[in-house]
Amino acid sequence: MQATTMAATGSMARRQAWTGATLLAFLLLVAVKAQSGGFDSFEIQTMVTSTLALGYLTLAQGVIVIGGGIDLSVGAQMVLFNCLSARLMEGRSFGTCLLIAAGATLAGALLGALTGLVIARSGVPDIIVTLATGFVWSGLALFVLPTPGGGTALEFQTLVLGSGTEFWPPLVGLAVPGLIIWYVLRRTSAGLGIYALGSDRQAAFLAGVPALRAQVTAYAIGGLLCALGGLAATAFTGGGDPRATAGMTATLTSVAAVVLGGIALTGGVGGLLGPVVAVWSLYLIPAIMLARGVDPAYGEAVKGVVIVLVVLIGGLLRRNGRKT
Amino acid sequence: MGETREALRTRAVAKRYGPVVALRSVDLSVRPGEIHALLGANGAGKSTLVKILTGVLAPDSGEIEVGGRPVAFRSPADARRHGVTPVFQDPALLPDLTVAENLRLTGTGAADVLERLREMDLTPPDFRTPAGELPLPLLRMLDLARALAHRPALLVLDEITAALPSDYAERVFAVMRRTREAGGSVLFITHRLLEVQEVCDRATVLRDGRDVDTHVVAEGGEDRIVAAMLGDKAVGAVPAAGSTAARPTGEKLLEVTDLGDGGRLKDVSFALHAGEVLGVVALEGQGQDELFELLAGDRRAASGEVAVRGRRLAGRHPREAVRHGVALVPSDRQEALLPMRSVRENLALPLSGRRWGPIRLNEERRKVGAVIERLEIDTRAQDEVRRLSGGNQQKVAIGRWLVGGFDVLLCFDLTRGIDVGTKHQIYALLRSIAEDGRGVLMFTSELREVPMVCDRALVMYGGRVAGELPAAEADEGMLLNAAHGLTRAEEVG
């Protein structure tokens, strides 16, 4: 009994250790940033606002990966909702913009649910389905907004990003959906079902988990968050940009952040705090190099090396953990 | 509650997968307060029937009644609501969730499960432990406790004892008897005929997708069951083992000296001679897993040495062992085979590992064809090995080394979950391998195999070789005692 208790606390510690390490690495980066270029409320605001859209996408990717899937269309969904909202919001009042935002969020959840339904019903792997839907969403974005443009109400931008150097509005904007989704994942049977599905699909089915419902729920949450990401992009740039490259980069970064944040790509393991902190860390690396006068092109390379190293070390730690 | 109402009744249940007919027509009835055995060779349709009865699959036709009422299960959860609760061979607990979360998932009360575990005389684990970190036998018992907590009218146990140590198996039998006393029913799927004798009231035998015999289990009824399972197919005569001298005379093929892994395995020494089948007998976790992994090059030795024909093995890599002529056939066929590839590719794998460059198709075809013929591998579904029956998969796993060549074959619980007919073919094969002047080291959890196949038997206990005896004298009781470390078997040599 004693031994098993210790094993339980040990494994819980191991589960929390990754998030702790991510947090520590982030604080270290913050300290370095503070030394080399300062880290005041303006810096915080810049960091949080410019990574807000990516933060939503990472949460979306996180929920889907925990459920045993992967979504290669998160960036394209963001671009689609960015273009859609920028076109509809242009020249409208604040109130109308809010209505449009609410509608877009709902539409995002529906698109996600549809994707989940297609994957669950067809049995085609997630990676293939979302690769294809990604192209569809990119095409639709171009259809909605052929060239960069559109606009939004200034009040909407202020609501999402804050004004001056206040950084709490975007932080709250990220934290509130994050907390709600955390609650759904960890404290409802729907969320438990998502973890179960990602952990072992067959065993989840035998245990009576409604697999279809869990998968659709995961993708619906993902779609909703992608729509929020698109709205954040609209607020941040004050318009829409249909070019697909931004979406592709965002998708890949969301996968990287999910892995760095301690979610297993095989599903069933991980939380939401780690990935968000990982997004900020990935932002800080090139920012620090820039502040130190290094060519920003190196920043990307360093980011890549860091991802490989962290995942390598994590893999080694996990393997050793299993051996003992 | 009329006495005539069956706990479970099926009428003409049938199922096909594309062109393959898995179940032709099965009538099965389980009475209230009965332990009913479901038996059949591999491919007879047992697992398909179990899947249908537990809501995993829907039948193509036929009727199912539970407690006299017709049912059509949509899912395992639906079956559970109707009082049919399964425990599958692979525990249906999610490895990444804690035990508590797993219980919440199925809506099972934790207190209820604790109570059941205590009834089984088991120390409950901490429920905050992720299920994947608990030992497999305990997981299976947890799964059983969870099923019991739902107070099923019909408990379906699918080969639950196949990989359980004997003290756990006894607990399972006790649970089955208690369930019967409480008026519940148990459908028990097993390959071990002795277990049927020990706990079951009636038995139904399936063959080729039909129920061919249902009878009351009686003393010495094994022959009837085997005959029903095999039908017209004659039982391959068991080759007389032990005809060779108990004291081996051939060249020493494999010599193990003071081998230890720094953990469970301690100072194991023995020799395997040419022309010999050497059995290893042990309860769960006595170091046999470690021993076989070490010999196969999959684990490093901390002390001692392994020599093949006098040459020392460094134990760096399975490839080194294979190159020295030591090949392992594990009990888990999924581990050995490439399930999505063809029979031919699976058999030819050792050839391609030998050198790079183009494959010599003619040589491959000749060697593979000869082995398929020798082992009588059923090639009807040869495009994907995973679609073969378990017995045929195991033949492919052995046949691979016949293609590749070897001196020492390590067999780890080879016949687990394999039907009687194929088992006998495999016994004959192992004997003929030995007669070719090669050596076989086989661990088996089925003690009756020892006098049937082996020349000598080693008994392992607590990571050591606790004794050695000639197989001809090794009856089950003697082996079991030695394996429990109760009496030391007679030391030979």
Automatic annotation (TrEMBL), chain A:
Keywords: Cell membrane, Membrane, Transmembrane, Transmembrane helix. The keyword Transmembrane applies. One of its GO terms (molecular function) is transmembrane transporter activity. It is found in: Cell membrane. It is a multi-pass membrane protein. The chain crosses the membrane at residues 98-120, 127-147, 167-185, 216-238, 244-265, 272-291, 297-317. GO terms for cellular component: plasma membrane. This is Sugar ABC transporter permease. It comes from Planotetraspora kaengkrachanensis.
From TrEMBL, chain B:
SMART domains: AAA. InterPro entries: AAA+_ATPase, ABC_carbohydrate_import_ATPase, ABC_transporter-like_ATP-bd, ABC_transporter-like_CS, P-loop_NTPase. PROSITE patterns: ABC_TRANSPORTER_1 (PS00211), ABC_TRANSPORTER_2 (PS50893). Keywords: ATP-binding, Cell membrane, Membrane, Nucleotide-binding, Repeat, Sugar transport, Translocase, Transport. It comes from the Bacteria. SUPFAM superfamilies: P-loop containing nucleoside triphosphate hydrolases. GO terms for molecular function: ATP binding; ATP hydrolysis activity. Residues 8-233, 248-487 form the ABC transporter domain. This is ABC transporter ATP-binding protein. It comes from Planotetraspora kaengkrachanensis.
